[in-house]
Amino acid sequence: MKIKARSLIGLLIGLLLMALPLFLPLMGGLNREAMRVLGVFLGAVVLWLFVDITWPSVLALLALALVPGITVRLSDHAFYKPGHQADILLDGKAVGHMGALGADILAMIDVTDEVFALEMDADVLLKRTFKGLQEIPKFPMTWRDLSLVADETVPYADILAVIEGLRIKELKAVTAVDLYTGEKLAPGKKGITIRLTYQSETRTLEDSIIIKWQDKIIQSLGTELGIQLRQ
User: Fold this and answer.
1) CATH fold for the domain made of 142-229
2) Which residues contact 93 (CB under 8 A, 6 or more apart)?
3) Averaged pLDDT score across all residues of the chain
4) Domain locations in the chain?
């Protein structure tokens, strides 16, 4: 029971740390994006220490992908543990990395516990830019979910790149909402559900046009990455 209570407390604290930067005032000269990245890292560390390694890593990557302009991709730095590390990109440019230190590094510093690290370019995080004002949309937003099956080696960043490359003006956001691996899938495959949010500045979108965009996205993902709809 003590182990379960400890894990539950760690889970609550970790999720709270990830969410708090959305509501706290800006501090220490950091912009909102920087605070959200820091919150994700601190929350992930708590989850790694008190809950688990695998699914909190996936959660951290998905949370980082929700920060405007921030994307993540799997990395292969020698000083991190394989499979527990990622590069952090801002507008396509690498600005940092995070992960669990590898066994060789831990042996060099004579540490037996897990150690996690985050390194980012401070100049990028402290940079403030005014992007102007936008008119509040007059027409409703709508969203559609796509449940996909992809090779385990296909990173989410590649899926995002293919969809954004279609340049659908009314597509306002692409969000990963679920990741599944298990017996129901073929070996080497993973299931991922993405949410596509649409909104037009000039009209209410009809189902027929949204279906055309959905079909176009599915076809492009299949052609570029071999991804299929999950049945």
Assistant:
1) Alpha-Beta Plaits (3.30.70)
2) none
3) 83
4) 2-126, 142-229
